Amino acid sequence: MTEFELSAELVLVGLAAVLALWVAWRLSVRRARKASEAARGGVRLLSLTGRVVVGALLISGAQWLALTHPGASGWVKLAALAVPAMLASWVLVRALTVTAVNDHARGRRR
C-alpha cells in the first residue's frame, strides 16, 4: 500500500482553497439574490403603474359617462363621484396606515 504524507503547508493550502471556494459561492448566491430582488421590484413597479392607469381610465370613463349623459339622475351622478372617492380613500388609508409585523418572532429569516 501507498502511504500519503501531507505536510502542514499542503494541508493549509488545501483548507485555504476550500475556504476560498466556499466564500466565492456565498458571494455569488448573495449577488444573485440581490439581482433577483431588484428585478422583482422593477416588475412590481411597472405592474402597479399599469394597474393604476387602467383603473384611473375606467373610473374617469364611468364618471364622464354619468356626468355628460343628459338623462342621468342626480343619484347616478352622486354614485359616479362618491364610489370612486370612497375606494380611493380606502386605498390611501390602507397604504398610509403603519402596521408592525414581527417576522423574527415567527421564526422567519430574511
Average of per-residue pLDDT values: 80
Straight-line N-to-C gap: 51 Å
Strand content of the residues, in percent?
A: under 5%
Helix content: over 70%
pLDDT < 50 runs, ≥5 residues:
none
Output the radius of gyration.
30 Å
Q: Mind describing the biggest β-sheet?
A: none
Kindly state the number of beta strands: 0
Transmembrane segments: 6-25, 45-66, 78-101
Keywords: Membrane, Transmembrane, Transmembrane helix
How would you characterize the overall build of this protein?
- The protein contains two helices and no strands.
- It has one domain.
- With 110 residues, the chain is mainly α.
- It is 76% helix and 0% strand.
Short description:
With 110 residues, this protein is mainly α. 76% of the residues lie in helices and 0% in strands. It has 2 helices and no strands.
Q: What would the keywords be for this entry?
A:
transmembrane, membrane, transmembrane helix, mainly alpha, 2 helices, 110 residues, rod-shaped
Topology:
Layout: H1 8-68, H2 74-96
Helix pairs in contact: 1-2
